[in-house]
Amino acid sequence: MVTTVLRPDPRAVAETVVDPELPMLTLADLGVLRGVRVEDGRVVVEITPTYSGCPAMGVMRADLVYALHKAGYADVEVRTVLSPAWSTDWISAEGRRKLAVGGIAPPGAAPVRTSGPVPLQLGATRRTAACPLCGSADTEELSEFGATACKALRRCRSCREPFEHIKEL
Questions:
Q1: From 89's CA, which of 1, 25, 74, 157 has a CA 20 to 30 Å away?
Q2: What is the dihedral of CA 141, 142, 143, 147, to 10 degrees?
Q3: Per-residue pLDDT reduced to its tens digit, 24-34
């Protein structure tokens, strides 16, 4: 009698791993989970950093390996894919909803990208974000940087509550 060990689909397992900096989101919600496949018995996961030098990449990689090992996959490789570069447009509708429920304003549409070097923009960047707590559009930026480089700190002029906003990239 041969016993077959049933394991969950590796993509389904990878899709449950949460972002270490935004734990209300999975890596799939955030759009950094690019691919999951099996090659010669090895699970290969591809992820894209939200920005170059993202300090969370090591934790993401370790959490993916741990989750897949726990699901019964002994051989796991996590690869970093840099092209195309990640965009906040890749955050799913569910991810945007979870951000707002978590008190973080989701990003608006990302700036249009062109091929070649990124143009230097001097002066203040004008971002807007509705308050995730009361919905008011009357908000102000307090700091271009929040707890992480991808977030700005804002305050609502209506309810006076501070909140973070995911910057459009």
A1: 157
A2: -100
A3: 999 999 999 99
Look up residue 162 and give its two tokens. Answer: 């501070």
User: Are the C-beta atoms of residues 151 and 88 closer than 8 Å to each other?
Assistant: no
- CA 40 → CA 15, 34, 77, 92, distances in Å? 21, 19, 12, 31
Please write the tens of the pLDDT for every residue from 116-146.
Answer: 555 555 555 667 899 999 999 999 999 998 8
Q: pTM for the complete prediction?
A: 0.84
Report which residue type is found at 115.
Answer: S
| Cα distance between residue 90 and residue 27, in whole Å | 11
**Exposed / middle / buried, residue 55 (Cβ in 10 Å: 0-12, 13-18, 19+):** exposed
Q: Name the CATH superfamily housing domain 10-80.
A: Fe-S cluster assembly (FSCA) (3.30.300.130)
